[in-house]
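Appendix B. Raw example, untouched.
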Amino acid sequence: MKLLTLNTHSIQEENYPQKLEQFVEVIRQQKPDIIALQEVNQSINAQPAQKELLKGYVPCPQTSVPIRQDNHAAQVAFRLNQHNVDCSWTWVSAKIGYGIYDEGLALLCLNHHITSVDSFFISESKDYQYWKTRKVLGVQIDGCNDWFYTVHMGWWKDEEEPFLKQWQRFGAALEQKKNNTIWLMGDFNSPAEIQNQGYDCIKNDGWYDTYCIAQQKDKGTTVEGSIDGWKDAKHNDKNLKGMRMDYIWCNKVVPVKYSCVMFNGINHAKVSDHFGVCIETERSK
């Protein structure tokens, strides 16, 4: 099984139409089974999505925000379907981003169909207007009992919405699923290079970083330079130039063939301010 995660930055990106096409072309070639996306935006004033954009869409019961015409996940799924790549997908919006976007999370499943959708708040705030409000989104697919979650966490030192409190809420909500294999995929805003913060917190709670157990791996860097949320010294206390903060975690030890960074300008063109992480497990689909 092949899994991919990417914080997309989506329609905020410069040259977005070109990057959208580049991303879809790589996905069409690589065909990950599960694609976990964060910062999946749509314009709050865009027209509602037309019927053809909703092929394969499985609504998330925990959202009342309609899919709009420029929804990034809808545009990706639509293009994949045009290339005869069967795509089952879902999306949830967590908050208003930059005053002009519905900002959310998406999961796309290629050649599988979503059978269950789960979403809940991990932030204390449930205010849709507050930019620090956070949700997670999870799915199950046909022929598999695993749960796959796409995640975008807050920062360790955040005074209003600290990482630790969000992680504790997340863990409590997953407790009822602990007998299943659970995958957490996304932007955790916790560099592996900084000790005694978010990365160590997750690891100490018994989760396995698939990068560490992969038979083959690269450098692993998923963020370079200064990006939104990491320009403030409060968060970037070591002023790191390269950070590994996008992960695929699992609650069980699963053999992983490889872990590789994608969309970093070396392994495919950059399409976001984050790079993607792709793993392939030795488990059957």
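End of appendix B.
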